[in-house]
Amino acid sequence: MHSPAPKAASATLARPVDLTTLWIAPPLLVLGGLFFYPLVLILGQSLGSDGSALSLRFYAQVLATPLFQGALLHTIVIAVASSVGCLTLGFVMALVLSFVPFPGARGIARLIDTFIALPTFLVALAFTFIYGSAGLLNMSLMATFHLPLPPIDFLYSPWGVILAEITVYTPFVMRPLLASFSLIEPAQIEVASSLGAGPWRIIRQIILPAAIPALLAGGSLCLLLTVNEFGIVLFIGAKGVITLPLLVYDKAIQEFDYTTACVIAMVNIALSLSLYSLYRLVVARFGGRNAGLV
Q: Which helix (H) or strand (E) holds 145?
């Protein structure tokens, strides 16, 4: 009587190889070449890999400098202030567009959405034409009131950067808010109004609870984007306003101090990844569909 073991072994050897797992190789190669490899180089440079032993001494030196601390403070303050402004303005505008019917409301909402596709420096350029020292508003006021100096000079300060970022990133808050408001049943508002509830009470007890997931998701996204904003800060050229991305540019491109630039870049990356984790946590907690993100 013959043993079936050889047949089983031959069947195992003859089984075709599953090639579907090989499809993951091209994306991994692209990610490795375009993202992970440069990131490893930046990390190595920040640790002093250019012939010297790897060490954190460069981090201790850079993080202790007033220039870095000031840039970190400016980055956080501008990002938080811009995000708060986006939340406030976005909530008010989405509220008006959703619950105050007027001709052209849908067209205005579509127009605001187009800001998402525009480069950020275009807003900074527009602000320069309007609010700059030689801008339309200053020149008109100087000609009208015979002023020797431009009366409006907020543009070249942190307030100018914050206002420009609010203008650019408010649509990122409005979009999920408009989607969230569209899920509110009009009957809820009609019943509350018929029972004597005023507009502020309706907003506080019906609209605001429905908007919280979208506000959290949109706010965390704005915080992530404003922390990494570079074009607006560079283009406006606000005096004394140096953020982490701008400091990386200054150290790498203007001073050729690549080690310091890489240290600051790694700190900026760590900050960005932390904020992205917060954003993903908010979306996972409340659901992308409920937050209007899908």
A: helix 136-145
101, 242: one domain? yes
Tell me the residue range of the domain where 41 lies.
24-55
Sequence-distant (6+) residues with CB within 8 A of 281 are none
Rounded CA separation 105/109 (Å): 6
Give the DSSP per-residue string, 178-211. Answer: HHHHTTS-HHHHHHHHHTT--HHHHIIIIIHHHH
Same domain, 41 and 98: no
Q: How far apart are CA 232 and CA 125, in angstroms?
A: 9
C-alpha 149/C-alpha 84 separation (Å) is: 32
Last residue of a domain, one of 12, 36, 55: 55
Cα–Cα distance, 35 to 40 (Å, whole number): 9
CA–CA separation, 153 vs 141, rounded Å?
A: 12
Q: Based on the domain organization, do 51 and 65 belong to the same domain?
A: no
- Domains held by the chain: number: 2
| b/e burial code for range 174-184 (CB count within 10 A of at least 16 → b) | bbbbbbbbeeb
The whole-number mean pLDDT for each consecutive block of 10 residues of the chain, a chain of 294 residues, reads: 51 55 80 84 81 78 94 95 95 90 80 79 88 89 89 88 93 90 86 85 89 90 92 85 93 91 94 88 69 51
**Amino acid, res. 45:** Q
Element (H, E) at 128: helix 120-131
| 247/260 Cα distance (integer angstroms) | 10
